Amino acid sequence: MAKRPKVYGLLAEYETPGELYKACEKVRDAGYGAWDAHTPFPVHGLEKAMGLRPSVVPWIVCVMGFSGAGLGFLLQWWTSVVDYPLVISAKPFNSYQAFVPVIFELGILLGSFGAVFGMFGLNRLPTLYHSLFNSDRFSRVTDDRFFISIEARDPKYDPERTRELLESTGALHVEEVED
Amino acid sequence: MPSHDEIHIGERSGWRRLPAVFGVIGVAGLGLGFLMMGEHKAEFYFSYLVALMFWMALGMGGLFFVVVQHGTRAGWSVVVRRLAENAMLTLPVCGLLALPVVFLGAHELYHWTHLDDPAVLNDTMLAAKRGYLNEGAFKARAVVYVVAWAALAGLLWTWSTKQDTAADPLPLTHKMRWIAPISVAVFAFSLTFGAFDWLMSLDPHWFSTIFGVYYFAGCVSFIHAFLSLVVILLHRSGHLRGVVTPEHFHDLGKMMFAFTVFWAYIAFSQYMLIWYASIPEETHWFSYRGQGSFLTLSLVLVFARFVLPFLGLMSRRIKRNPKTLAFWSVWIMVAEFIDMTWLIKPVHAAELGVFELHFGASDILTFLGIGGIVLAVFTWATCKNALIPVKDPRLLESINHENA
User: Residue A45: what pLDDT?
Assistant: First the structure.
């Protein structure tokens, strides 16, 4: 007898962003933590309906940006004061004024790296396999349908009661997705 | 839609007293200043120019804000656009207040006007610039700026307030959008050459092509700070609540932050090229700003205008909280005053050979005088019409605006 496959969670399908928005508020108020909303396009204010806390990406960018600026200064200070001092138009070796453009650019560069790769990391990208794609209906998420998924690892998850909750939000269809 | 009382200053509101109060302060300040001038003409006109360029930043910023919102068909800003239009109306007034500088005080302020002095007459650089820097052209340009500002501010303000009662508001929106790009060009040229004439020619040997942009950066910071502050005060008197929301504060704060960085970018670009090339007629401008108490002033400027507001305005929470935003708005206006002092005052001190920052009665009186007149015009216009353009087609979009 084949082993019963592990369950990833429940997937609920909605027809409009408005229905999804209201459903998200209900799932949020029910106190779930490991769940997500999936839409073909950004829906304004959905982060409030989902109760998402502000992203930590700005903090990553802040740390990376200032590190970039600091490294930019060290690089130039070390090359022009320590490693290979050259007199340029009678200015001091440590002419910080001339270092500013590179300090600025490296601050921007590492800050942008922080933004892009920080976002990748927080979103666990690239993800080569995702359980939700086991659902045939889920392919319409890139077209015209809106979804909520609640994961089985959530401590509040209960196959019966979570399904009842999703059905009570006016979902078109609720299904269990394999892991 | 907001109720009538929320978007109009009531007949018995304290705001109604402000135009008269500011008007009296203005006339008294300027009157006393002129009377007390006596022999200290130069001191008075240098103080007057600092106050004038400081307050002119409000009108310049207002005109820029209004034409950019029209030109880009902006939605978010409609709820604060009427206040910016009222601020824009102070620009022609400041233009008129610049006429004493041009017609009465030019000899005290601008040493290139001293053609009776052989040192000036035979100066090769000044002779080369005389096609532009001569008193006739200087006066003519001032008149042209005032006329241009009066025309633009007058048209845009009249059309916008007319729209409030218009049966069909759309053609007026289209008219304002149509004139916006022309206004941007007129604004850019008049601001740049105004800054060249009134600020840069204080030291006529020195030149910097980026100078107009430098003054512009301050103007744009100023208007966003001013709008935030006025809205916060209007909220306290029970106006515009639920109309101008933390979402708009957030955007105004973002613009203040952006133009704080922009100012630093421009100021440093100007400084670094001059420092790098190290040509005497360019470096001397910075050199006397690094002597005596002007060195302290220069360092204060760097921190007050860039380092501290850059760190202070970074957080989203600070921009969305009216109290902290009010703090940084006041800060940015003070920084603009420090900037104008730094641009103007050292020239006078260097001519006297005394590198000390002098701050006296004439500074306070001209600041209150010009400020009083400017704020009297602003508050008069604010009491006269609705606080928002009530029939703007993007008004609801603006009220419901949310930052993603």
Answer: 87
Q: Any CB–CB contact under 8 A between B124 and chain A?
A: no
CB B329 within 8 A of CB B11: no
- Contact, A32 vs A169, CB < 8 A? no
Is the N-terminal amide bond of B118 cis, ω within 30° of 0? no
- A30 to chain B nearest CA, in Å? 25
Counted across chains A and B, CB pairs separated by less than 8 A come out at: 18
Chain A residues with CB under 8 Å of a chain B CB are 42, 44-45, 54, 58, 62, 89, 97-98, 100-101
Minimal Cα distance from B401: which residue of A? A44
**Cα-based torsion angle of the residue sequence B287, B193, B227, B327 in order, rounded to the nearest 10 degrees:** 0
Collapsing DSSP to helix, strand or coil, A51 comes out as coil
The C-alpha atoms of residue B188 and residue B67 are separated, in whole angstroms, by 11
Residue in chain A lying closest to B275 (CA):
A97
Question: pTM for the full model?
Answer: 0.92
Question: What single-letter amino acid sits at B334?
Answer: V
As a whole number of Å, the CA-based R_g of chain A is 25
The shortest CB-CB distance from B404 to any of A44, A89, A97 is to A44
| pLDDT, tens only, B29-79 | 999 999 998 889 999 999 999 999 999 999 999 999 999 999 999 999 999
Could you give the CA distance from residue B274 to residue B276 in angstroms, rounded to a whole number? 5
Find the closest chain B residue to A47 by CA distance: B404
Beta bridge partners of A174: A12
d(CA A166, CA A158): 12
Residue indicated by tokens 């601020």: B87
Question: Using the beta-carbon criterion (under 8 Å), do B272 and A101 form an inter-chain contact?
Answer: yes
The tokens describing B15, both together, are 């705001």
Residues B248 and B245: their CA atoms lie apart, in Å, by 5
The complex's ipTM? 0.82
How close A44 gets to chain B, by Cα (Å)? 7
CA distance readout (Å), B231 to B57, B70, B236, B388:
19, 21, 9, 11
B311 and chain A: CB distance < 8 Å anywhere? no
* Every domain of chain B and the residues it spans: 38-116+129-398
Cβ atoms of B314 and B257 closer than 8 Å: yes
Contacts of B6 (CB under 8 A, 6+ apart): B238, B239, B240, B241, B242, B243
CA distance B402 to chain A (A): 8
